[in-house]
What does this fold into?
Amino acid sequence: MRNLFAALSGGLFGAGLMVSGMTDTRKVQGWLDIFGDWDPTLAFVMGGAILPMAVAWQLTRGRTPVLGGNFPTPPEQRLGHNLILGSVLFGMGWGLVGLCPGPAITSLSFGGPSVWVFTVAMLGGMLLAPSVRIRLDLLARPT
Amino acid sequence: MPIDWIFGLIGGLMIGLAGAVFLLANGKVMGASGIIGGLIDGSGSSNRTERIAFLAGLIGVPTVIALVFGFTPESDVTTNPLLLVIAGLLVGVGTRIANGCTSGHGVCGISRLSLRGIVATCFYIGAGGLTVVLFRHVLGVI
It folds into this structure.
């Protein structure tokens, strides 16, 4: 049952990314390009996605997940160097090509070989992340 | 084009609904980089099949839509292999170090007013904007 709902959620996520136009790197880079022909679509996608999610978070109060277990704990308040540095690195890669993890996986079947090259490199980056994190932690440690 | 905004909004609502299903049914935050990353580095081995099922839906449903309905949106991805590899590495390392991407920090974080989600989103949009401006308008590479 958990797997069925996970697949349903993944499928709806992929379909939503396709419909919204977020698998089109031109629209993503167009949103980031404030000095070019600026494309506001991403703001509508974000807004549209945040609405049902905000309702869902409200519904978690005083309840447990339908399929058992517990809801995620309240978000950590501490920001930390990893959040900032990681987000900057991610943003640079996102800007360079216009793909982030969700749309990359979604367009594997129709985006052509470029999406595969990007995705393989992304998986490699994810494998490297723990060792990069250890180095960043050492650098950030107060001496 | 104004019609793009409407599709953006409809697609966005679908994405939010997907996140709501994953949260209310499975009790999990729908973050693409976390779901993939947990499989790659083994940190998510306790709910491996759930992650694989999510990714199967994420790959499978768009494939069916593309094959059955003939709807294949433009991707316009660069064919420059160097750019693709560098960008892929940056996205992979960055999202795992920051512990989230556009779906986890952006959609799921902002909607619960998580400070971390909001700050992360400001930084990756800021860095992405600077990168596009630098590489498109200054260097002319993309």
About this structure: Chain A has six helices and no strands.
